[in-house]
From TrEMBL, chain A:
Entry similarity comment: Belongs to the YciI family.
Protein name from the UniProt record: YCII-related domain-containing protein
Species for this entry: Phytomonospora endophytica
Residue ranges occupied by any YCII-related domain in the UniProt entry: 2-113
Any Pfam family: YCII
TrEMBL record, chain B:
Domain annotation RNA polymerase sigma-70 region: ranges: 11-76
Protein keywords: Sigma factor, Transcription, Transcription regulation
Coiled-coil portions: none
GO biological process, one term: DNA-templated transcription initiation
Lineage: Bacteria, Bacillati, Actinomycetota, Actinomycetes, Micromonosporales
RNA polymerase sigma factor 70 region 4 type domain location: 112-162
Protein name, UniProt field: RNA polymerase sigma factor (Sigma-70 family)
PANTHER family: BLL6612 PROTEIN, BLL6612 PROTEIN-RELATED
UniProt similarity note: Belongs to the sigma-70 factor family. ECF subfamily.
Length: 122, 412
C-alpha cells in the first residue's frame, strides 16, 4: 500500500529554529530517510523550495496567466513529502510518527490510489 | 532459433535447482547467487555452440561451484566466509550424500522454503521468490510492482540479510513443519498471482506478466508435490481465474463485473485444465481452502451465464469454505451467493452480520456488495448511496471509477 507522508509548515515556523535545533532537525531527517531507504519502503522523498518561488498557472480565455504564491494562500503549506510503499496503514502511521516533527505540528498520512483493482465479488 | 529458446528454457528450469543445491551445501545466499549467475552466463554462451551437455544441471553445479571457490578466494569474501563457518557446517551436516546428488526437487523446494521463510514480510518473500526461484532481474521485479529499482534491490538484500542472521533457512524444514511451510509458499504464489491479475495499467511491454510467472512457479511446485491437493487446488484456482482475464476489463482499463462479462472471451483451454485439476484433486485429497475456491471458480467457469449458474452449489461450497477457513471475506462472498439463491433480502441480512465484524467496518467491499444487493432488490436510491460510500472507501483507482460509474448510472 502506498501512502504520501506530508510535512506542513510555514515560514514563521521554519524560521523559528535556533542553529542547534535546526542542525538537529536536519540530522534527524537524514536518519529518518536512511532508515526508510534501508527498509525497502521508500519510493520517493522531495523537499519543496521556498514558497516565494511557487507559481500558479491558470488559462483564461486561452491566455496563460501566471501568479506568484501557493495555490492556497495564507496558513501552512507543503514543506516536504515522502511516498512510501508499506504493508499496512498501521505501518504508515508508525513511520509517520517517527518523523522528527511529528511531535510538533503533526504529519499527514494520505493513502494513494493504487493502479490495480481488487477483484470484484463473484 | 528453436535451439536458443530451449537453452533459455532449460536454464530457467535449472537455475533454482542449481542455486538451491549450492546454498544447501555452502549456505551463503549472495555468493551462491553470483556464482550461479556466472555459470548460467557461461552456459548461455557455450551450449548453443557446443551443444547441451548430457547432464545440464550437473554441468551448472560444477561450474557454479568452481566460480564460488574463485569468489571465496578474494580477500573480501574470505572475511565473510569466516563469519559463516558455523552456518556452512550446519548446512553440510544437513545434506548428506552430496556426490551422488540429492534429488533435484529437494533443492528447488528448499530454495522456495528459504525464500518464503516465515520470518520475512510478504513483500520480501515475494521479491526473493521472484528473484531466486523465478529468475527475474531486480529491475523486472521492480517494474512489475511499479516501484523504483533501488527500492526493490533494498528489499531483496534486506531479505537475504535477515535469512542469514536467522540462520535456520538453509536446510529442509523437518517433516512436521512442512505443511505449514508449504502453506506459506502457496500464499506467496497466490499474492504474486493476485498482483498480476488485478493490474489494469502499466506498459505490458516492460511489465513482466506476474500471473504467468505465478502459474509457472505453481506448476513447478505441483510437479514437486503432485499428491498435495492444495497445491493442485491453487494451480486450478489460478488457471480458472486467469481464464476470465480477457473479459474482465474494457480496452481502456475499466472493470467488468462477472455478471456482465462476455463469456465467449473466456479462455477455454485454461478452463479445461483448471476443471480437470480440481476434479482430480477433490476426488483424491483432503479438501482445503484453495480447492474449495477453485471448485467455486469451476462452477462459474462452466455456467453459460449468471442466471444459469448453479448458485445452490456455490452456496454449499461457501458453507464448507466457511468451516475450513472462516473469515469475513468468505462470509461476504457467501452473502452474494445467499442473495442469488434466496433473494436479495436474505443476502442483505447475511451482509449485516458480516458488517458487524470489526475487521470489516469501513471496508469498501461490504458497501459494494450492499449496493449490488439493493440494486437487485429494486432499491436504486439505497444502491446509489452504497456505491458512493464504497467509492469513497476504496484506494483502487479502477475500482473507484467502476463504483462511481455505477452510482452515476442510478442517478434520477
Amino acid at each position: 500500500m502506498r501512502f504520501k507522508i506530508s510535512i506542513y509548515g510555514n515560514d514563521a515556523l521554519w524560521g523559528s529554529f535556533t542553529e542547534e535545533s535546526f542542525a538537529a532537525l536536519i540530522a534527524a531527517d537524514a536518519a529518518f530517510q536512511r532508515d526508510l531507504r534501508e527498509s525497502g519502503e521508500l519510493i520517493s522523498a522531495e523537499g519543496m523550495a521556498d514558497s516565494g518561488l511557487v507559481r500558479v498557472v491558470r488559462v483564461r480565455d486561452g491566455v496563460r496567466v501566471v501568479t506568484m504564491g501557493p495555490y492556497l494562500g495564507g496558513g501552512e503549506h507543503l514543506g516536504s513529502y515522502f511516498v512510501v510503499d508499506c504493508d499496512s496503514l498501521e505501518r504508515a502511521l508508525e513511520l509517520a510518527a517517527g518523523y522528527p516533527t511529528a511531535g510538533g505540528n503533526g504529519v499527514e498520512v494520505w493513502p494513494l490510489l493504487e493502479h490495480s483493482g481488487t477483484t470484484l465479488p463473484d | 532459433m528453436s535451439e536458443d529458446v530451449s537453452v533459455e528454457e532449460l536454464l530457467r528450469e535449472c537455475a533454482p535447482q542449481v542455486l538451491g543445491s549450492l546454498i544447501r551445501r555452502h549456505g551463503q545466499f549472495d555468493l551462491c547467487e553470483d556464482a550461479v549467475q556466472e555459470a548460467l552466463l557461461a552456459a548461455s554462451q557455450q551450449w548453443p555452440v557446443e551443444g547441451i551437455p548430457g547432464n545440464p544441471r550437473g554441468w551448472l553445479v560444477t561450474v557454479a561451484t568452481r566460480r564460488l571457490t574463485d569468489l571465496w578466494r578474494s580477500d573480501d569474501a574470505r572475511r565473510r566466509r569466516e563469519a559463516t563457518v558455523a552456518l556452512q557446517e550446519e548446512a553440510s551436516a544437513a545434506g548428506p550424500g552430496e556426490e551422488g546428488g540429492a534429488p533435484d526437487h529437494d533443492d528447488t523446494l528448499m530454495l522456495l522454503f528459504l525464500c518464503c521463510h516465515p520470518s520475512l514480510s510478504p513483500p520480501s518473500q515475494i521479491a526473493l521468490t521472484l528473484r531466486a526461484v523465478g529468475g527475474l532481474t531486480t529491475g523486472e521485479i521492480a517494474r512489475a510492482f511499479l516501484v523504483p529499482e533501488s527500492t526493490m534491490g533494498q528489499r531483496i538484500s534486506r531479505a537475504k540479510k535477515s535469512i542469514k542472521t536467522s540462520g535456520t533457512g538453509f536446510r529442509m524444514p523437518p517433516l512436521a513443519e512442512r505443511r505449514k511451510r508449504v502453506a506459506v509458499v502457496l500464499h506467496v504464489l497466490y499474492l504474486i498471482f493476485n498482483e498480476g491479475y488485478t493490474a489494469t495499467s502499466g506498459d505490458d511491454l516492460v511489465r513482466v506478466d506476474l500471473t504467468d510467472e505465478a502459474i509457472r512457479l505453481t506448476r513447478a511446485v505441483h510437479r514437486l508435490l503432485p499428491d498435495d491437493g492444495e497445491v493442485a487446488g491453487l494451480l486450478a484456482l489460478m488457471l480458472l481465474t486467469e481464464s476470465r482475464r480477457p473479459a474482465r476489463t474494457t480496452p481502456d482499463g475499466g472493470l467488468v463485473p462477472l455478471a456482465e462479462q462476455d463469456r465467449s472471451k473466456w479462455n477455454a483451454d485454461r478452463i479445461a485444465e483448471g476443471v480437470g485439476l480440481i476434479t482430480e484433486s477433490l476426488a483424491h485429497s483432503a479438501v482445503g481452502a484453495y480447492q474449495l475456491q477453485a471448485a467455486i471458480a469451476a462452477v462459474h467457469a462452466e455456467a453459460p451465464s449468471t442466471e444459469e449458474t448453479d448458485w445452490p452449489q456455490i452456496l454449499a461450497l461457501y458453507g464448507i469454505l466457511e468451516r475450513v477457513s472462516p473469515g469475513p471475506m468468505v462470509a461476504l462472498n457467501r452473502a452474494v451467493a445467499v442473495a442469488m439463491v434466496d433473494g436479495p433480502r436474505k443476502g442483505l441480512d447475511a451482509l449485516d452480520a458480516v458488517a458487524a465484524d470489526e475487521r470489516m467496518t469501513e471496508h469498501h467491499r461490504v458497501e459494494a456488495v450492499r449496493a449490488h444487493l439493493h440494486e437487485m432488490a429494486g432499491e436504486p436510491e439505497a444502491a446509489r448511496e452504497s456505491y458512493r460510500r464504497a467509492a469513497k472507501l476504496t484506494t483502487s483507482a479502477p475500482e473507484r471509477r467502476y463504483l462511481e460509474s455505477r452510482a452515476a448510472r442510478l442517478n434520477p
